[in-house]
Amino acid sequence: MVYSYDFRSDTITKPTPEMLNAILVSEVGDDVYQEDPTVNKLESFIAQLTGKESALFMVSSTMSNQVGLRSHLISPPHSVICDDRAHIHRYEAGGLALISQATTYSIKPSNGVYLTAKDIESALIPEGDVHSSPTKVIELENTLGGAILPLSEMEKIKDLSDINGLKIHLDGARLWNVSVATKTPILEYCKYVDSVNLCLSKGLGSPIGAVLAGSREYINKARHYRKLLGGGWRQAGLLAAAAFVAIDTVWPKMEFDHRRAKRLRDGLAEMGISTALPVDTNIVMAKVGDVKLNVSLLGTECAKLGLLIRSVQSDVVRFVIHHQLDDQAIELLLQAFRTTIELQNSKVNTKATVY
Ligand SMILES: Cc1ncc(COP(=O)(O)O)c(C=O)c1O
């Protein structure tokens, strides 16, 4: 089966010809010796973009988050507070327990969308109780499921963190999207955190990589942990060159992804399907359970139209919009939904006549 469009994630994009060309002509050196000029340039650029002293090019966002948290977590027993749906809590292979010897205390946001300072305050574990592991880091994710954690709430969380002497790590894998959607510089969001991970290979479309940013001392520590975990890469400037092309050519067009996500949301709403989270950016969490949709049937109808989706039966299915999906992709997906609903309805009607 040849698929023309892939809605499963924004990680699946292929490098553009411009990226491949940049890789071919990139200037490289040994990054373990910090001698790769393109990596050094990327790290300086991200440090500036985030308003931090220093930055470190990483293999992936998982590595960036795990090394980033390990570099804050000095002396166990210690713990990290995060959203119950956070990537570091659910999808990083239990890395915090293994690498940082840390417990996660995960919270369900009381507003159902994003964590608030109040949610976090009530879950903080203080020093001195020998039964528990004290909170040392608050971990935030922006976006989470495509929904934005507002700047005003981040400011309140920062105040809470300061009062309690904690650090904040931001998994900003999709902070690029937040910045575009809110027309707010990335720097503004980074003011309220000690460290931030920015992914290069999600909506930005670069083939590999993420960048961790923070204070000089913190990044020096992180560089050590990155090496320990086998992330001391050599001529990584190849990838840094592709990342610059992604930042220059894909980021400025990200608004189109957000518009297409909203078009999908609106089209689904016309069929009686709502979303589990606000569609602030490029992710649509479609509540297919609203119409008792048979997701594997939807997967089959999508495949006929050359669309690849996550067709695992569930009440909520995630669709992720990226720069290699166009208007036609969205209309085809809506068409596949309509056909699936019609087929389901006709089966119900057939059964009704039989009985
Ligand atoms: C919010 C978030 N953080 C981190 C990651 C991990 O990214 P990577 O696949 O680069 O390790 C993902 C992956 O989808 C993610 O969605």
Structure in words:
- The structure is a single chain.
- Strand 5, helix 7 (151-163) and strand 6 (167-172) form a beta-alpha-beta unit.
- Helix content is 44%, strand content 15%.
- It has two domains: 5-10 and 253-354, Aspartate Aminotransferase, domain 1, CATH 3.90.1150.10; 17-250, Aspartate Aminotransferase, domain 2 (3-Layer(aba) Sandwich), CATH 3.40.640.
- The chain has helices at 17-24, 37-50, 61-70, 87-90, 95-99, 117-123, 151-163, 175-182, 186-190, 216-228, 237-250, 254-270, 295-304, 327-354; strands at 5-6, 54-58, 78-83, 102-107, 135-141, 167-172, 195-199, 210-214, 283-286, 307-308, 317-320.
- The mean pLDDT is 96.
- The radius of gyration is 22 Å and the shape is globular.
- A seven-stranded mixed beta sheet has the order 2-8-7-6-5-3-4, with helices on both faces. A two-stranded parallel sheet has the order 1-10.
- Pyridoxal-5'-phosphate is lined by residues 11, 60-62, 65, 87, 141, 171, 173, 199, 201, 210.
